[in-house]
Design a protein that fits this description.
Blueprint: H1 5-16, H2 20-43, H3 53-66, H4 75-101, H5 110-121, H6 125-138, H7 140-151, H8 156-163, H9 167-184
Helix pairs in contact: 1-2, 2-3, 2-4, 3-4, 4-6, 4-7, 6-7, 6-9, 7-8, 7-9, 8-9
């Protein structure tokens, strides 16, 4: 991280105020971290996924600064928000692909049934997205920790600094979240 917290915060303030040049500078400043986050997310996708890493970064960034005003306080909150947006984009993409893939029941062939059985056994990103939304409704703080650790790819130490908890507490909460998600996805 070559940037300082003040650099990111100042660019963030200007970007939120509508300064496009500041938004571009901000993206350039944190691009390597965004690329790592997006790569982590894309690594878990099926081969032949049509959404590329760069497209995921750009779409998340545009969603952040192209829509309604976001009340982002600092670098950690920015990364957590972008990680959540990347997850949301991937879930929406998976939903769209799922709708496109499934022919009406009466038009399915035997091969379709085999493909469908394979797809249902693999990790379902849509189901994961829904369960993460449930987790966020029950405990928004826990979802933030999950997003920072697994979707932003930040080390536990940095997550602990961002959320203002000890490393051990964050590790414990990650275990709780993992157990809850495992149970919820069964």
């Amino acid at each position: 991280m070559g940037e300082t917290q003040d650099d990111v915060n100042e660019l963030l303030r200007r970007a939120r105020a509508g300064d496009d040049a500041a938004a571009e500078q901000l993206m350039a400043l944190i691009y390597d971290e965004l690329r790592h986050m997006a790569h982590q997310r894309m690594r878990g996708q099926r081969p032949g996924h049509t959404l590329q890493t760069t497209a995921l970064i750009n779409e998340a960034f545009l969603k952040l600064f192209g829509g309604k005003e976001q009340a982002i306080q600092d670098r950690g909150h920015l990364l957590a928000t972008l990680a959540t947006m990347m997850r949301s984009i991937l879930v929406d993409h998976a939903r769209r692909k799922k709708r496109e893939k499934r022919p009406p029941e009466e038009k399915r062939l035997v091969l379709d049934q085999l493909v469908l059985a394979y797809e249902e056994r693999s990790t379902d990103l849509v189901a994961l997205g829904e369960k993460l939304e449930e987790l966020g409704a029950k405990d928004p703080g826990l979802l933030r920790i999950v997003d920072l650790r697994f979707f932003a790819g930040l080390p536990v130490e940095e997550v602990a600094d961002i959320v203002g908890k000890s490393k051990r507490t964050v590790e414990r909460e990650l275990l709780v979240a993992r157990a809850w998600l495992k149970q919820a996805l069964r």
